[in-house]
Here is the input.
Amino acid sequence: MVKKIILYGASQYGGEVADHIHDINISKPTPEWEIVGFLDDNETMMGKERNGIPVLGNKTWLDANEVSHYYFLCCIGNPVVKRNIIAMLDSKNVKYATIIHPSVIRSTSAQISEGCIIMAGTILSTFSVIEPHAIVNMACTVAHNAIIGKYSNINPGSRISGNVIMGEGSFVGSNAVIFENLKVGKYSKISSLAMVYSNIPETSIVMGVPGRVIDKNRAV
Here is the structure.
């Protein structure tokens, strides 16, 4: 039976996710998902389309429709914004989709939670854990026993080494590297191309090679 899905967030990234869902559908004998539309709280998106898919409205749509008929997926990369939207969706008792592109290489022991988006070309190694509503973008590697905290966003080409713990709401820029046995604190941001060799405190901003903390008070 085809499942109806609504994507929250009609940005260009939302369009990428829609394309990944299309890839999932064509990889199966029968389609798995029907994308009903987007929700977005940006008023400039009202009445528009993304990838030919209509923007149905904003969060008030949830009160005017029977949400139990649908699965929901939050397509927003900012972990703080995503956390707040998920809290609102939780209050409506919605059910969440999990999207894994057909090209993903995934160990049988890897764990992927509800609401996650695992994009094309990614590798999830032995006993890796992706916590709820995290994004692992295209061509990333998550090595053995690594944990990606809920709401986190791991951007394209990043390398998360073995036994790394990425705290809740972590944001990792494109092509960054986190070396083994490290802990990145909650809601920290690692810049693109950074190489992290040491533990990172919560709410930090890290840049450079080697990665250096340039701010310990990132707003969350």
Summary: The chain has two domains: 3-97, 98-206. The chain has a mean pLDDT of 97. Helices lie at 12-26, 61-64, 79-91. The CA atoms of residues 14 and 105 lie 22 Å apart.
